[in-house]
Design brief:
It is a single chain. The longest helix is centred in the middle third of the chain and has 27 residues, at about 90-115. This protein has 10 helices and 4 strands; from the N terminus they run βαβαββαααααααα. The N and C termini lie far apart (about 40 Å). Helix 1 (about 15-30) packs parallel to helix 3 (about 70-80) and helix 4 runs parallel beside helix 6 (about 155-165). By secondary structure, the chain is of the alpha+beta class. The chain folds into 2 domains: about 10-80, Glutaredoxin, CATH 3.40.30.10; about 90-195, Up-down Bundle (Glutathione S-transferase Yfyf (Class Pi), Chain A, domain 2), CATH 1.20.1050. The chain has a 4-stranded mixed sheet, covered by helices on one side. It is globular and about 50 Å long. The structure holds glutathione.
Amino acid sequence: MARRAVMTLFSAPTAPWSHRTRLVLAEKGIAIDVVNVDVGKLPEDLLDLNPYHSLPTLVDRDLVLYDSRVIIDYLDERFPHPPLMPIDPVTRAQFRVALYRVERDWYAMAADIEADPHGKTAAHSRRVLGEAIAASAEVFKAKPFFLSDDFSLVDASIAPILWRLARFGIVLPPQAQPIVKYMNAIFSRPTFRASLTDAERSMRP
Ligand SMILES: N[C@@H](CCC(=O)N[C@@H](CS)C(=O)NCC(=O)O)C(=O)O
């Protein structure tokens, strides 16, 4: 591929995996060339670079990274300010478990809904995801961010799913009020606004 002056992120304009990567970039104020890519029409150079042909893919000179988790971990280490993971090993491990669960459960159910919104699997995932989010509401009562006074990779991962709730056809019950408050706070951050593509901006009224 042609040499690029800055880092390049190949990003899907409506997908939560790409969105969390763009959000981490915005939180850290990293200058990067974001290339919006149609999932069904990946550019030739991306097909050569990433054996999984997946988005997002980050290219930083000779380094090619894929899988959004690998990318956000790299960005947090390569650009340490502001840090997006806690320092002490026990809290770090707790945050990693939270990331694992959000990816394995929330992102997987979001993918089911996106894949076939009118299918049976989507109906099941819509219900289970809505219940899982409502059940987590207590977690957001005590602190402004996920178990923390500071924004972290967990918040960057949760926010793209919450932003898509209306798109997914999920309505939260009244007991989920703390999470609605959390959503409003996250969505009004200038960094969050900066992370959105035009297509994502139109996902919520
Ligand atoms: N675990 C991956 C999932 C990424 C993913 O599924 N990306 C989709 C776009 S939303 C993709 O690249 N699909 C293209 C394909 O499978 O050919 C990550 O976190 O990056």
